[in-house]
Amino acid sequence: MDKWLEEAKKKDEKDTLKHFRKEFYIGDNVYYMDGNSLGLMSKRAEQSLFDVMEDWKHHGIDGWVKGERPWFYMSENIGERMAGLVGAGSHEVLATNSTTNNIHQTVRTLYEPTKTRYKILADELNFPSDIYALQSVLDDYGHSDGLVKVPSGDGHLLKTDTIIDMMDESVALILLPSVLYRSGQVLEMEKITEAAHEKDIIVGFDLCHSIGALPHQLKEWNVDFAIWCTYKHLSGGPGSVAGLYVHEKHHDKGVSLKGWFGNNKQTQFDMEHIFDQAPDISQYQVGTPHIFSMAPLLGVLDIFEEAGIENIRSKSLGLTDFMIGMIEDVLAGYDIDIVTPKEHASRGGHILIGHEKAAGINAALKSKGVVPDFRAPGYVRIAPVALYNSFEDVYRAVMILKEVMDDRLYDAFNNKRGVVA
């Protein structure tokens, strides 16, 4: 037994979260390392979806108010359960819409441009959908030139000082990722928020790559708003309903996108044509909630509550520490560039590696049972997830990567991304 396998087995023996692995559906001889794109299905998520379908079967329309999980309050109830994952009050978090729709809703509500202060600060490494939404808002306000992007010195990472230096009197609002979707860098959210507020700038974060992987303290940090998806580390299922947080100090503002589920629930079915805005985060809903797209979260959030986000974070760092160390050892000399920061405070839940044959490497890994994902132009993201990946999984995945490199198995594949990378 080599030293790395021996070390992996020792770590797995001591793993306090290992029993959660049996909660998830993992294929035979599959090393699933793509939980930062789509988390695996859990048995509890499957059961909660079945339970909600049973409510439909037995209650019909009365499922909105009857059964163990009444649909009428499901968005708020799931929001309450996610509040602990982001460090916010239960009345400040909601499950609703998609991530991009929630960007439109929160930004359009909180963005208050003036003639001299109308710019929105983002970054050049951000996920495209965030940029599309921000540009759309600016276009609608007649400020098409108002999107300012924080530059990256190396194409992978952002510097806090650079972000803060760009907070001038022309900036009205900031939206940045908590974790950069490519490199996995964690931004200094508290420091950024404090600096923004010193200049009276509204600041929000996209938590898509941090929710469920690391703890947050949004309320303590005084963050104005945040948005996230629930199908990555949270394992809510493909296209599962997104989440959002808005600090209670903004709940008195009129929401931009008004719809009947943002109405006060006590008067919603009065069917008046005058919008009676809900007094809490519920106001950010628009249309009828997508019940079956929320139902899996009812089950999987039980697992997060039992495991504890601090424990998840600790194991996640252990897994990625182990992976980085092993790659640096057994793959030395193969020109594999580890892009992700090694410092714990700066690293999210995945590792980004670079190589000129990255697309071919990604395809070769998948042919051997390892499931990562490719990001253009030449990078592979690998995400061992604390709830269902073991240290031995990481060992096996890296050894298969070594086989791919030793035998140049990537040459058997086209070094181009697929339609879905």
From TrEMBL:
Its cofactor is pyridoxal 5'-phosphate. GO terms for cellular component: cytoplasm. Signal peptide: none annotated. The modification N6-(pyridoxal phosphate)lysine is found at residue 232. It comes from the Bacteria. GO terms for molecular function: kynureninase activity; pyridoxal phosphate binding. Belongs to the kynureninase family. This is Kynureninase. The lineage of its organism: Bacteria, Bacillati, Bacillota, Bacilli, Bacillales. The gene is kynU.
